[in-house]
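Memo to structure team: turn this sequence into structure tokens by end of day. - J.P.
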Amino acid sequence: MEIDPQLVKQLREKTNAGFMDCKRALAESGGDLKKAETILRTKGIASAGKKASRVTKEGIV
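Reply from structure team:
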């Protein structure tokens, strides 16, 4: 199955995951963005974007 590069780009913008991770997730989900996002989250790849909005309470960054 050929994955549309625009779909990969959209998924990368949503999840901050790598290109190949997004491409594999889209291939696994059959091109469905919602399912691909869920796949990335269950694998833990997309969790960094979720944690990026946290505030640092202690220490120096």
